[in-house]
């Protein structure tokens, strides 16, 4: 494993959180059959197409309209596949559990965050005078090269189309889907050396495809892995270990050196030949050439451990290694063993029945599941908001227990208090959401440290107001400091939220009746020198108490209590302005550009907030906010309750009668 210039820049510039922000979407195209295994040719007469379902003859395509992070993708796909099977079952139909022909199979689309391209370009690669779109296209091409060379591994692990639907008695292969695809293009040679040469050899398109345009207006928008086999035993249509593997491969190919261009064509040709050989072979046949992928698996494992991919990866790598060591553990071989003496038709029909009746774990009530099912069938937007509280969202309306829509403030307040949920609720607006991690144990703290060791971070309560126990580190803390600080907080709260610090000033908006009634800048606790008093005397005059975090902040600045602070010099006692600290409030309502007021009211609408508080970071409230630059506004959190005093009595003797405005609503 050797990082290239992109990988080194990501590592050195503290951009590692990008590894948690790849987005995925899936398309699954199935043959639809009746209970006797006959293809159904009149699906469209009984099932309507919508944003989730596309119908083509006797095939139905299940689509994710939006791309999600991997964890959310798994949740969405599991729900949608469940809903589709239930909808078909009401008509006596089932999904054929394997790829039935060349028109069926699974496609995964991979998108890198645009912010990554922008950060890399501005911090490092702009100096080379390369065009921005050429630069981002080259990154996608680099990923495509890595996946093209790894296709034999994915075919070996996922191959399961033992035969096509119209030839179930034919020769059994590991993946007839991959074999037929590669057999049809074996005379053509793909060229992945440049983006231009790739688009010039599209007749050689295999299982790796670049989406988008070769231009300077749009550029490449995604990488897709297509014509993948189904896993009939997975509630996702594909094994979760395979998704975990692909996720680590994206990060690895992004950050590590690839194959030199003068060797690339020969290696891709050899890879295609091996992929075809693996696809054509009997699932029980040992493939000696698979040993060549053991170093790649070792490198992926090393990379995943170094960059803290977490516990899911540990189980994944063990499963992958077991399948490489013993070909009888692969999916295709396991399916053949399970088939036994049954005909393939009878065996797969049993699989379709098991796939429909298999229990699915969900904390949601039967009411909520029924409401989501109906929304899916109607093609309406929906999402699960909170499993534990049984709250879902349908077309922008919140529904509790399948009955109550547009929840009252008491229920919504519980959602806002959960900072991660609140971020999810505003996630489709053009604002920035800080990378964050939720911690409940010291063990989690130790595992997380490699991810944040180069970052400025803030520690706060995961739920409710961030209080004075929290702390902001402008400079990345040492491992000892980090573990100690989180340990102290875990004595005060059950979960700690670690967020990456964003540049800008912290503001709080007071919302009354859906409108911004007050906007204040929260200036952290501080004292100002007069050239005569020591720092200790200045603090005592203000009647501030020096707690652990205040002392730590002074130590970070290299200050001692016996120092005399020069006249007019401001000394921060904290870097944050959490509730419970002695922050100053400065009126910003009249100074802020109106685009920020409009944005805050949009956020309130999205949160269904009639009255409450919204915390934000703004880079510059005097310049207009533009949706093309979401980094200008960072969402921190929302609260149903809070102190009115900071909005009523502000610095420079400014005052606002908030209480009177509240009472005026009841006249």
Give a brief rundown of this model.
With 667 residues, the protein is an alpha+beta fold. It has 23 helices and 23 strands. It folds into 5 domains: 5-22 and 108-352, Creatine Kinase, Chain A, domain 2 (2-Layer Sandwich), CATH 3.30.590; 366-405, no CATH class; 408-433 and 504-525 and 577-667, D-amino Acid Aminotransferase, Chain A, domain 1, CATH 3.30.470.20; 435-500, Dna Ligase, domain 1 (2-Layer Sandwich); 526-573.
Morphology call: globular
Please give the CATH architecture of the largest domain.
Answer: 2-Layer Sandwich
User: What's the number of structural domains?
Assistant: 5
Structural class: alpha+beta
Number of strands: 23
Helicity, as a percent range: 25-40%
Mean of residue pLDDT? 89
Which fold name corresponds to the CATH topology of the largest domain? Creatine Kinase, Chain A, domain 2
Largest sheet: 7 strands, antiparallel
Query: Which residues sit in consecutive blocks of at least 5 with pLDDT less than 50?
Result: none
Structure explained in plain terms:
- The relative contact order is 0.08.
- 39% of the residues lie in helices and 18% in strands.
- It has 23 helices and 23 strands.
- The mean pLDDT is 89.
- β6 and β7 form a beta hairpin.
- By secondary structure, the chain is an alpha+beta fold.
- The longest helix is centred in the N-terminal third of the chain and has 20 residues.
- Strands 1, 2, 3, 4, 5, 6 and 7 form a seven-stranded antiparallel β-sheet that branches. Strands 12-23-22-17-18-21 form a six-stranded mixed β-sheet.
- The protein folds into five domains: 263 residues, 2-Layer Sandwich (Creatine Kinase, Chain A, domain 2), CATH 3.30.590.20; 40 residues, no CATH class; 139 residues, 2-Layer Sandwich (D-amino Acid Aminotransferase, Chain A, domain 1), CATH 3.30.470.20; 66 residues, 2-Layer Sandwich (Dna Ligase, domain 1), CATH 3.30.1490; 48 residues.
């Amino acid at each position: 494993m050797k990082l290239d210039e992109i990988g080194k820049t990501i590592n050195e510039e503290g951009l590692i959180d990008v590894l948690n922000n790849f987005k995925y979407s899936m398309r699954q195209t199935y043959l639809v059959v009746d209970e006797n295994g006959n293809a159904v040719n009149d699906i469209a007469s009984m099932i309507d197409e919508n944003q989730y379902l596309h119908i083509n003859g006797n095939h139905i395509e299940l689509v994710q309209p939006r791309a999600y992070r991997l964890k959310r993708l798994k949740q969405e796909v599991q729900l949608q596949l469940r809903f589709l099977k239930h909808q078909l079952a009401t008509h006596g139909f089932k999904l054929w559990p394997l790829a039935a022909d060349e028109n069926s199979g699974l496609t995964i689309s991979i998108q890198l965050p645009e912010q990554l391209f922008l950060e890399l370009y501005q911090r490092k690669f702009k100096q080379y005078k390369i065009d921005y779109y050429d630069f981002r296209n080259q990154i996608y091409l680099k990923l495509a090269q890595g996946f093209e060379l790894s296709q034999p591994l994915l075919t070996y692990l996922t191959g399961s189309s033992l035969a096509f639907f119209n030839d179930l008695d034919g020769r059994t292969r590991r993946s007839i889907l991959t074999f037929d695809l590669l057999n049809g293009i074996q005379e053509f040679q793909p060229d992945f050396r440049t983006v231009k040469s790739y688009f010039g050899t599209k007749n050689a398109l295999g299982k790796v495809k670049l989406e988008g345009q070769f231009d300077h207006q749009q550029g490449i928008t995604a990488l897709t892995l297509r014509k993948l086999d189904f896993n009939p035993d997975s509630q996702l249509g594909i094994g979760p270990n395979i998704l975990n593997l692909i996720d680590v491969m994206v990060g690895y190919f992004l950050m590590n050196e690839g194959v030199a261009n003068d060797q690339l064509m020969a290696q891709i040709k050899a890879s295609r030949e091996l992929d075809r050989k693996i696809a054509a072979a009997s699932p029980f046949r040992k493939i000696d050439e698979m040993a060549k992928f053991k170093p790649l698996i070792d490198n992926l494992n090393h990379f995943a451990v170094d960059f803290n991919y977490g516990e899911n990866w540990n189980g994944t790598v063990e499963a992958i290694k077991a399948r490489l060591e013993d070909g009888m553990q692969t999916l295709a071989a396991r399916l053949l063993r399970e088939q036994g003496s049954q005909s393939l038709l009878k065996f797969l029909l049993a699989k379709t029945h098991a796939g429909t009746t298999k229990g699915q774990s969900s904390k949601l009530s039967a009411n909520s599941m029924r409401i989501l099912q109906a929304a899916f069938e109607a093609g309406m937007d929906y999402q699960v908001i909170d499993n534990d509280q049984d709250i879902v969202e349908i077309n922008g309306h919140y529904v509790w227990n399948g009955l109550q829509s547009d929840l009252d403030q008491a229920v919504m307040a519980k959602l806002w208090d959960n900072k991660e949920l609140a971020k999810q609720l505003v996630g489709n607006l053009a604002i920035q959401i800080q990378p964050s991690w939720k911690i409940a144990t010291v063990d989690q703290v130790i595992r997380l440290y490699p991810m944040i060791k180069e970052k400025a971070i803030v520690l706060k309560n995961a739920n409710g107001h961030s209080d004075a126990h929290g702390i902001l580190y402008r400079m990345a803390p040492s491992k000892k400091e980090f573990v100690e600080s989180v340990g102290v907080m875990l004595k005060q709260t059950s979960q700690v939220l670690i967020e990456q610090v964003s540049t800008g000033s912290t503001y709080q908006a007071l919302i009354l009746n859906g409108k911004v009634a007050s906007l204040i800048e929260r200036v952290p606790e501080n004292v100002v020198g007069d050239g005569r008093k020591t720092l200790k005397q200045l603090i005592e005059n203000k009647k501030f108490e020096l707690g652990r975090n205040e002392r730590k902040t002074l130590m970070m600045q290299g200050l001692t209590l016996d120092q005399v602070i020069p006249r007019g010099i401001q000394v921060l006692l904290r870097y944050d302005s959490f509730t419970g600290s002695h922050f100053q409030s400065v009126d910003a309502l009249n100074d802020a550009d109106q685009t920020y007021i409009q944005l805050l009211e949009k956020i309130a609408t999205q949160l269904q907030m009639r009255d409450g508080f919204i915390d934000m970071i703004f880079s510059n409230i005097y310049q207009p906010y533009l949706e093309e630059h979401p980094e200008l506004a960072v969402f921190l959190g929302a609260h149903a309750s809070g102190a009115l005093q900071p909005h009523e009595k502000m610095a420079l003797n400014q005052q606002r009668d908030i209480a009177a405005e509240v009472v005026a609503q009841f006249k």
